[in-house]
Write a structure and sequence with these properties.
Helix content is 58%, strand content 1%. It is built from 18 helices and 2 strands.
């Protein structure tokens, strides 16, 4: 049911706490459609592409067993199949992405469609090349179709009871969804990219200049949707898309293909006129070492992939806006600074760069603690009147006290940051 469900008392007396829930209900249909379309097109594409890709191995399985029994290199065969099927599928999926983008007409860039469709196809083909190695050819289509449809729907994050809130809860569901559902990263990437391109007033995003706003308090991270919980920067307004899930999808595809390589050498060895693996290990110790190395490689790929989709990215919005604001304020008020310090006869290039001279000042650590009007920090109050000392480059005039320069800059930036004057330097201060 996509109709809003809001109590009248809540609607007429909402506050900051209840506002996200009310907005989520009012825009319930608009938010749901961003999941419905990717889920539908993703499931259909995954099943069709997967079944077609698996035919490359199932239709030639008898020839494969015959050739490997004759001594031909099976690794070369598997590598050739991977290359041909991947290229063929990529061309097909690019056409599908183009048609889907034309039908959907997304608000974000069209590259979002191409990137996520190709990443999903890479994962789908990987599973399609694994199942024929361990399942009889006559059962591959049934098992593969059921695998894509069941897990692609149940663990996609779009269908209750397993939504994105449950996926990001940090338990086994997150791992099952990432490894077994080919639509998991596809679905979230498409939906988050669309919502990330909505303007700030929609409640989904914030602008880069919103330096005094809790950017986690948006609908993007709200429990009702729970998009991009490992990437706090996804709340920033950006129409170029959100591609966090592309790299985990690629690594999952590589891991599954590597598992298919191991399955080719571990299953159906009798049909390839080869002895079982344990017999080879007992016969030759080097074979046992090789098996251990290959298994360690699999463990390494699994660990790397798991780390990629579970790590929390570092938020860069705590200082991006502040530094930009401070630097802009200093640049805009350079003329008034020259007039106040009686440097009107100087060229701008002769005045030292205040930010470089005060490199030890971390603009990311500035706080909103209000200073009394007209007062500066203690370290500056003990210094002489700054207007009586011309600010010049200490390397040119060694008589200038560098501590005074730092004190002057700290006072100017504190006044500008706390709003005690209209600009970083004025006659009042």
């Amino acid at each position: 049911n996509d109709n809003p469900s809001i109590e009248f008392e809540t609607l007429v007396s909402f506050d900051q706490t209840s506002a996200p829930g009310i907005v989520a209900q009012l825009f319930k249909y608009a938010a749901t459609i961003q999941l419905t379309f990717p889920l539908q097109i993703g499931l259909i594409t995954a099943v069709l592409v997967g079944l077609q890709a698996s035919r490359t191995l199932t239709s030639k399985q008898l020839e494969f067993f015959r050739e490997t029994s004759s001594g031909y290199d099976s690794n070369a065969y598997l590598l050739a199949v991977n290359i041909v099927v991947t290229l063929e599928t990529s061309v097909q999926i690019a056409i599908v992405a183009l048609i889907s983008a034309m039908l959907r007409e997304p608000v974000a860039e069209w590259t979002v469609f191409f990137a996520h469709f190709l990443a999903m196809a890479w994962t789908v083909v990987s599973w399609s090349l694994l199942f024929p190695m361990i399942i009889p050819a006559e059962n591959v289509s049934t098992v593969l179709g059921a695998f894509f449809a069941f897990f692609g729907l149940l663990l996609s994050g779009a269908v209750p009871p397993i939504g994105f809130e449950a996926i990001y809860a940090g338990d086994i569901v997150e791992h099952l969804s990432a490894w077994l559902s080919v639509t998991r990263f596809f679905l979230e990437g498409m939906a988050a990219s669309e919502h990330r391109c909505l303007p700030e007033q929609s409640g989904w995003t914030v602008s880069e200049e919103s330096i005094n706003f809790d950017r986690a308090n948006t609908l993007m991270a709200y429990n009702r949707f729970s998009y991009a919980r490992h990437d706090p920067n996804a709340t920033l307004y950006d129409c170029r898309g959100w591609y966090w899930g592309i790299l985990p999808s690629i690594c999952i595809g590589i891991t599954v293909r590597y598992l298919g390589f191991l399955a080719m050498h571990g299953f159906n060895r009798g049909k390839q006129t080869k002895k079982p693996v344990f017999h080879e290990i007992r016969k030759d110790g080097k074979c046992g070492i090789l098996v251990v190395v290959l298994l360690l490689g699999l463990v390494g790929l699994v660990a790397l992939t798991t780390w990629l989709y579970t790590r929390d990215l570092e938020a860069d919005y705590e200082y991006v806006g502040i530094e930009k604001w401070v630097r802009t304020a200093l640049e805009q008020n350079l003329t008034e600074l020259r007039e106040t310090l009686n440097l009107t006869d100087w060229n701008i290039s002769d005045i030292p760069n205040l930010l470089e001279m005060n490199a030890d000042l971390d603009t990311a650590a500035l706080t909103r603690v209000t200073l009394p009007t007209g007062e500066f920090p203690d370290e500056f109050m003990n210094q002489p009147d700054p207007t009586l000392v011309p600010i010049v480059d200490p390397n040119v005039d060694p008589n200038v006290d560098p501590d005074l320069l730092n004190g002057t800059l700290r006072a100017l930036m504190s006044a500008a940051w706390n709003g005690t004057c209209e600009c970083p330097c004025s006659e009042q201060n």
